[in-house]
Amino acid sequence: SVTKSHCIMAADSMEIDDALYSRQRYVLGDTAMQKMAQSHVFLSGVGGLGVEIAKNIILAGVKALTVHDTKQCTKWDLGINFFIHEDDITNQRNRAEATLHHIAELNPYVHVAASTVPLDESTDLSFLKQYQCVILTEVSLLLQKKINDFCHAQQPPIKFISADVYGICSRLFCDFGDEFEVLDTTGEEPKEIFISNITQSNPGIVTCLENHPHRLETGQFLIFREVNGMSCLNGSTHQITVVSPYSFSIGNTSDMEPYLHGGIAVQVKTPKIFCFERLEKQITNPICLVADSSKPEAPLQIHVAMLALNHFQESFGRGPNIGCLQDAEEMLKIAISISETLENKPQVNEHVVKWLSRTAQGFLAPLAAAVGGVASQEVLKAVTGKFSPLQQWLYVDMLDLVTPLEKTDSEEFLPRGDRYDALRACIGDSLCQKLHDLNVFLIGCGAIGCEMLKNFALLGVGTGQDKGLVTITDPDLIEKSNLNRQFLFRPHHIQKPKSYTAAEATLNINPHLKIDSYISKVCPATENTYSDEFYTKQDVVVTALDNVEARRYIDSRCVANLRPLIDSGTMGTKGHTEVIVPHLTESYNSHRDPPEEEIPFCTLKSFPAAIEHTIQWARDKFESSFSHKPSLFNKFWQTYSSAEEVLQRIKSGESLEGCFHVIKTLSRRPRSWTQCVQLARVKFEKYFCHK
Question: Which SUPFAM superfamilies does the annotation name (predicted)?
């Protein structure tokens, strides 16, 4: 019976709920999904950033998550944690216990537990051995170092991630051990390259078919097949060095037979080892990812500023006071001292240090959402060994947001005792009021739409007393597969309208929100609902759509009514966002994505050499037979009312457009099932024998 139960458990753990995980399964693959479903994760700190990470990794489907926190819920939390409510504050609940039920119901396959025991310098860390990944938020730097040293020393190492959001700055750090093996660094399909020539030389140069760049990188491996002439290459694997976008070298080919024609080189996915250093060492000699190419110096400057903030907290037992210039000056002195101790002695940016000091007690929910998303991706990489991990620091700032507020009175930033105090500490009260008075139109309540609504609720968008309204629309009903990434929905919402359900869930986060929900599609047919008058009332339009056609239409309406548009979308592991402002940026319709590589007609017709060619050939034939030709036929009879009229016109010598095609179609038109089969058999002979 023990063996039997083990078998059942093993079968259970291998089974993936495709109805729930189908989209994610497509991106990650079954092996990664199964690794994830066997992983135990520990997360400390259930503030605004911690709850974002918890939400994301529970939706993704780890086996078990322990959320740890020792703080009580306060009014402050209402503006940063979307799962904490007024009654949690009244009942003085612990933050981990208050959010436990809400995060647990996001995914029934994940076991979620809460821990409220103190975690400090004296804690015995051996309890962490049961976890594959440890994530720390809101933990002192000294304790981060201690826990990181413990995780790094284990065999195999426990993957360590620390993340923090302080006011307008954020940081993320990863340490996955001395040697972390990644089986697939990109998750992309292996590339196939068609060969036009290979030289007999040392090194041999391989040239691709004309106008087909190989898009390879030096160090990658390729396996060759179907090469004529230099046939000893077939079945062999070679490491390549990129020579140009259309050629690469593969080593010595001078002793081989001369190349004649043909050949395909297929990319071979090889595991890659990533080496990580401990937090202690990385603090003095950081490796940073440059997130914004226009500010390559920013990561090191924020690194110094945030170290100064940690030092300030340790020295004074508190964070710098909101808007306090004296504390900002003190933090600047600390930053200058710290800079001297770092290996490359980075320049101290006074502007960054002072703004971090002024806003450090505050919190920006959208910044936490972005950093929480990236941190969660790193957790998935850590437990699955798929995709290249972050090495090792990521810094993201919102300085652009506060720079215009330089001369604002510091009283603007002080707390008022409401749910927006954390936000107010960063952007001031005037900007908070502007957000409250906004009219926003959100189109689409899917994965991005749910995230947008959550951010609107935390920011207080559309909560003004006299002004402000959030209007949402989505014609779709909720399906089970939506629950994997659209966190406002639960199993009991399946087959209910997305927009109505999303509106109700958003009011749970912030009851003061004014929200209007529709289920009608935004298209030319609904312009009586979404009229010019409707658009001119909106301060900003936000799209969270899944197709380009709808984006183009909404963009044209925004251009006509001079409304700003924020557009974003995702596909697999990739995503985009675009801000379109009248008179300042180009519109969405002003540009087109690069066209799909068109296949020459002669290749399609006579020399299909790749699976893409056969697919395109079939698409063209299908389009011609079942769309283009029937529509020409129907259009002809809309123009001419009867066969008699057509006959009369032909007899009088008139040339009628499409007449030949129509007569041909009429004469061959099948009238019964048997005739359909006959026609199909004739077509088959024509396409696959004669052609």
Answer: Activating enzymes of the ubiquitin-like proteins (SSF69572)
